[in-house]
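A further point concerns the way the authors explain their paired sequence and structure data. Nothing conveys this as quickly as seeing an actual entry. An entry of this sort, consisting of the sequence and the corresponding backbone structure tokens, reads as follows:
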Amino acid sequence: MADRYPSDVAAGEVGTDGGLVMADRDGTGRAAPLDGPERRQLDVIRRWGTVGALLMAVGSLGAGAAPVFSPLPGTPVLGLFGRMPSVAMGLVWTGIFLIVSAWLWLGRFARPGRQRLVSRSQMDRTLMMWITPLVFVLPMFSRDVYSYLAQSQIAATGQDPYELGPASALGVDNILTKNVPNIWRETPAPYGPLFLAMGRVIAGITGDHVLPGVFLHRLLVLLGLAMIVWALPRLARRFGVPPVSALWLGAANPLVLFHLVVGVHNEGLAIGLMLVGLELALRRMPLRPGTPMTREELAWIVVGATTITMAAAVKIPAALALGFLGVMIARRLGGRFVDLLKSALLLLAVSVVVMVCTCLGTGLGFGWVQTLDVAGTVKSWMSPPTALGFLGGGLGLALGLGNHTEAMIELTRLLGQVTYVVIVTTLLWKAFRGRIKAVNGLGAGLGAVLVLGPVLQPWYVLWAALPLATGVLAKRFRLFACGTSAFIAVILPPTGSAFDGRAYIVPQAVIGAALAFALCLFAARKQIGPLLRRDTAPGST
């Protein structure tokens, strides 16, 4: 592809740097603001989603993943929800339905190619309205935050969280250990030293007070979300996607609201650092390749690579971003194989220095390298390779060949790892040759690593979705990402644990929530009617 300046490159086209394409909005001219009727529809969408967030906040008092020794049961009024689990869970699911539907309706005003788009300030205010009620809720959808608290306390007491699990280090009667799910009580921490160093500070502040510890860990996630909101529109503009479209699919995604903000997962911090690192590294990178690299450009690349390495020191999948950043640097230098080697050596040197300093500086050492496979000790059917292993073992039993389930799981997991290595290598090569945008390769590569890995959790989807939100304009992909996010968002129960023989609560809650949602639709039919009709705005696709 001949060298061209940004003004000569169409929106979404692969640039000479492996996908770096500066664009004004959607590449077809600056989008106009919403007209009067559309602004009124946006107000309805905001209120609709905010009501959903408030319902989730109230329902979490009885349906959330509350700590074992919760102060709520003895609290007047607030303790009432704990004695009505079906009602509380119904409130949460009603809120989920409202937020997901509001997000889908908001998408019509953030669609690439539309002549009138929601403004950045309108998108930011909408996001704030939906997030604010969720900041103070009990954790839902997962109990991982209680593992964070226990592992951080282990580090705060001077013990090694990479050698000891909560039960061994803190004791089985410790209040923090009691909140950790049984399957994780004896396992060491699988998280990077930077995250545990932050958790150690939180543990020093809160001690064994669970709810303040949960809140401070949520503040870490909100810091990561702020990074995501900062980086997404900037990266999207570089790669030819309207910034508000990236924010809608990325930061406003229900999976972000439910599993990062409410679920308090450290993916928020790791992904935020990763995206910020990419943006910083590209901050002074010109599009025209082959020109001498300035000291300022090199300095920004080092700062960006340092930030990405810090993300990997929270959760290791973020390290893959260094590979695709290296591809962009190599194409910036001229696109020769020797340029690829130069960029690889530069990023390797930076990442090694930063990681060694992090490990030694935090005092936690390098034990985290040996615990990266801790999650794989749990055999979950949600992981496709593990599910195939269970299927193979079941077939062996059915055919009278004996029980070889463990061997089959090991085999299918190995095949999954080989497969994602091949996929990632292919994506890196295609990005280096300029056939795909590097940021799209990063999203697809992260998706392959996590889907084909030994363990898969619903919120892992965000590792792929957020980078792809900054680089993909294709309507088919956005519809797929939208549908997948909405489906995952509505099917997971909020308790974050088993129902102890009370499985009847789930269908009761879902049926009640569906009826309540239908009643909301009927009561607000005049206001939401325009949102249910096909978008016929000029330029819509």
